[in-house]
Amino acid sequence: MNHPLLIDTDTLQHRLGQPGLVVLDVRGRSAYEFGGHIPGAVHTTWHEYSDPNAVPKGLLNPDLGAIEQTLRRLGINQESDVVIYSNPFDNWGDEGRMFWMLEYLGHKNLRILDGGWVKWTAEKRPFEHGLAPPATGNFKAQPVKALAIVKEELKRIVRMPHERTAIVDARSLEEYLGKEVSGIPRPGHIPSAIHMAWNGFLNKDATIKDLDVIRAMLEDKGIRSDQEVICYCTGGVRSAWLYVILKLAGYQAIRNYPGSWWEWSRDFACPVEKDMHMLQKILGFDQAAGPSGKPS
Questions:
Q1: H or E segment at 260?
Q2: Is 192 helix (H, G, I), strand (E, B) or coil?
Q3: Which residues contact 89 (CB under 8 A, 6 or more apart)?
Q4: Residue numbers of the domain that contains 85
């Protein structure tokens, strides 16, 4: 797909080694070191930028100096052309989280590799093992606060009519309806939230679907381009991928909630809704039937 926020595998291969290019591999450390990576790519994950003192894992470290130092060690400058990739079929939208975080921190030259490691290896493109130590960068964070939302502001929105704002839950349908999840105090979803699973936007080769198809998917859910859209999930990772998808589709006012359900479910002043009847139905249970759908 030709889009300014994406780069295709052929273009990236021809650009490898050029000054100013920083390729970020956001897969797991072992996959990067031992499974191979794009030549010259440096490794990082979203966990490195989380608040070390917060229980909700998605909250960003409030110490911007620490975040800057981590990004500088990756060789990122203010003017760097940053390309982010992962294995799109083996993560939670991590490349979207890195894209959103860097954009929130004020970086302006960001792209995601369309198809990621899946397409790169399927095309038998070059790779290497081990570490790729870069020169130290000079990135200075300048947060764009309009790209994130905090819990207290979201609580205020939920308490009043908000026709011009869509709240979108990027988790699985089971989580949205109220499935119990280990480590989460309360299951369910934010009242009025629209369910739009994060993982339905890829083709079989891991590239992003045609944007007309994506726009139709969003509109079918009632998510309009003239609304402000607030995305959340469990820890602001899957929702950050949805943030990227919305940007690709041309939505202009989008915010990610990094605290997401990890934070929201822990505050008993935050309202929660569930639909246990629908959850039992999709899991194959009802009042007169067991898991197989037959009378128990």
A1: helix 260-264
A2: coil
A3: 118, 202, 206
A4: 6-143
Q: Are residues 191 and 119 in the same domain?
A: no
Same-domain status, 68 and 178? no
CA distance 284 to 295: 12
What distance in Å separates the CA atoms of residue 107 and residue 141, rounded to the nearest whole number? 8
Q: Residue 24 in 3-state DSSP?
A: strand
Q: For residue 24, which phi and psi values (nearest 5 degrees)?
A: -105, 120
Q: What is the pLDDT of residue 62?
A: 97
Residue ranges for the chain with pLDDT beneath 70: 286-296
DSSP secondary structure letter of residue 128: B
Q: Tokens in use for 145?
A: 């606060």
The reply to whether 168 falls in a domain is: yes
CA distance 15 to 18: 6
What are the structure tokens assigned to 276, written together?
């246990």
Tabulate helix, strand, coil % of the chain (nearest 5).
30, 15, 55
As a whole number of angstroms, the distance between CA 240 and CA 246 comes to 10
pLDDT digits (tens, 9 = 90+) for 53-88: 999 999 999 999 999 999 999 999 999 999 999 999
